[in-house]
Amino acid sequence: MFPHLKGFNLKQWIDENRNDWGQRRVIWQDSDFIAFVTRGPNRRKDYHINPGDEIFYQLEGELNLHYLGTDKKQEMAVLQAGDLFLLPNNVPHSPRRREGSWTFVVERIRKAEEWDRFIWICENCGNKLYETTVRFDDPSNAVANATQAMKADSKLATCNDCGEVLSL
Q1: Alpha-carbon distance 29 to 42, whole Å?
Q2: pLDDT tens per residue, range 4-30
Q3: Fewest beta carbons within 10 Å, which of 92, 94, 100, 150?
Q4: Contact 106, 35 (CB under 8 A)
Q5: Model-level pTM greater than 0.85?
Q6: Phi/psi-derived region of residue 137, left when phi > 0, alpha when psi is between -120 and 50, beta in every other case
C-alpha cells in the first residue's frame, strides 16, 4: 500500500501531541495540498490573501474568521466545532482563534509564480496600512515572516488617514 493511502486518525494525533504544540503543525504538503492543524489563541491582525481556495474545519472551540467582503466591508463568519467552511481564493481573511480552538486547514500548494499577500487594515477607518507578499512554502512561518516588517517599523502600523495605530 502506498503510504499516502494509509488512514490517519487526526483526533488521536492531536491528543498525543496536544502538550507539545506550537501555533500550527503541518500534516502533509507532499501532494497537491497542504494540510495543517492550527490552534488558539492567536492575536492576528493581518488579512491573508491566498491565490487558491481554503477549507477550514473547526475541530474544537470557536474560530472567528474575519474577512473583507466585495465592498471591502469587514465581516465575520463564526465557526463552531464541527463547522466546515470553504473560503474562495483571493478573499482577504483573518482567522482569529480563542484559547482551546483547534482548526484543520487544507490549501493547495502554490504554483511557482504564485505569492500570498498579507494586508493590515486600520481598525478605526478601514484604510489599508501596509501590504506585503511572501512565498507560502511553509505554513508554519508564513504569517510570522509577513508580520516582521510591521513589528519593526511602527510607522507602517499608523494610519495615514485617521492617525490610529494598529496594536500588534
Answers
A1: 23
A2: 656 778 888 888 888 887 777 888 877
A3: 100
A4: yes
A5: yes
A6: alpha
Ranges assigned E (strand) in the chain = 24-28, 33-39, 46-49, 54-60, 62-68, 74-80, 84-87, 93-97, 102-108, 116-121, 128-134
Residues 164 and 44: their CA atoms lie apart, in Å, by 17
Say how far apart CA 149 and CA 137 lie, in whole Å: 19
- Domains of the chain by start residue, with CATH: 3-112 (2.60.120.10)
Q: Which residue has the cell 473583507?
A: 68
* 143 within 8 A of 95, measured Cβ to Cβ: no
142 close to 136: Cβ distance less than 8 angstroms = yes
